[in-house]
Amino acid sequence: MPGGPLTIWCDLAAPEPALAMLRAGVAPHLLVDGADLAVAQADVAFGRPDADRCAEAERLEWVQLATAGYTAFDRAAVRAAFAKRGARLTSSSSVYAEPCAQHLLAFMLADARQLARSLRHQLGDRAWMSEATRAASYLLRGQTVVVVGFGAIARRLGELLAPFGLEVVAFRRTPHGDEPMPTFGLGALEPWLGRADHVIDVLPASAETAGFFGAARIAAIRRGATFYNVGRGSTVDPAALRRALESGALRAAYLDVTDPEPLPPDDPLWSLPTCVVTPHSAGGHADEYERLVRHFLANLRRHDAGQPLVDQVI
Asked: How many CB atoms lie under 10 A from the CB of residue 197?
């Protein structure tokens, strides 16, 4: 490499097998524990570094986050600091797109086949509610799916849903024109909410998205639709969501993220029979840290070769 070995700052709290893979894979570069070195003294950072410290670090040329989200870095001051010195920021969205998309598909199939209803009876009265359960079940075919927030998760979800014959449309701040499904600006969302069978929230946390699904937008969703959230809990007004579930305006809600997190044990959402909560586990998978390391090492080789980086956001 023309400039010599790089100093790589890392604070990834990973199991030893993943760290061993990382140590072996970065050679001939120097890997340093984030607890032993300030990020300002590194050329590359991998993990969850502080955004402001990265913005101030004149030497730092590339940051790869071990997360799909990058909210703390998505600020004008941080972007300007990176742009001024030509630094780059990449996420790990490629690592989390598959598990999150599969989690959403599992949610949708569970609702269609009424698995939560059957589980409640199994753990409760053990009633054999065959007719009622069959009548409440439905097919994922010919329905309309509205995905709010387009990125790697929405792209992969669209692929997984393709065999079901669904109408899938997406909404994002600025459509790029290369999306594999009809994609519109957020300003065009409301009419589609009124015809949706499934509304899927994959919005990131930001000042713009805080409370995005408030009382008005939740009320705009077609009665009997199902709501899903694997984005961020802060994008939904929990009280408005609870009211819609209690009134029957929404058929059900499947939430992997909540506000606050963890969801307090006495929160009413826990006890609503039409609400299923998973503990922010959509992105989790057994080889998660190994995949994070492999993703970073592949990008490191691209960085060394002067090639474009995968999942670059700045």
From this structure: 20
pLDDT tens digits along 242-258: 999 999 999 999 999 99
Q: Which residue has the tokens 């300030």?
A: 38
Give pLDDT, residue 257.
Answer: 98
In the structure encoding, which two tokens stand for residue 7, read together? 């100093």
pTM over the 0.85 mark: yes
- What confidence score (pLDDT) does residue 2 get? 56
Residue 56, domain extent:
7-91+286-305
Q: Is 261 among the residues known to form the active site?
A: yes
Residue tagged active-site, from 113, 280, 285, 302: 280
Do residue 128 and residue 262 come from a single domain?
yes
Is 179 an annotated catalytic residue? Answer: no
Q: Which pairs from 267-272 meet CB under 8 Å and 24+ separation?
A: 267/238, 268/242, 269/238, 269/241, 269/242, 272/242, 272/245, 272/246
- Catalytic residue (choose from 232, 251, 291, 303): 232
Residue 310, domain member (yes or no): no
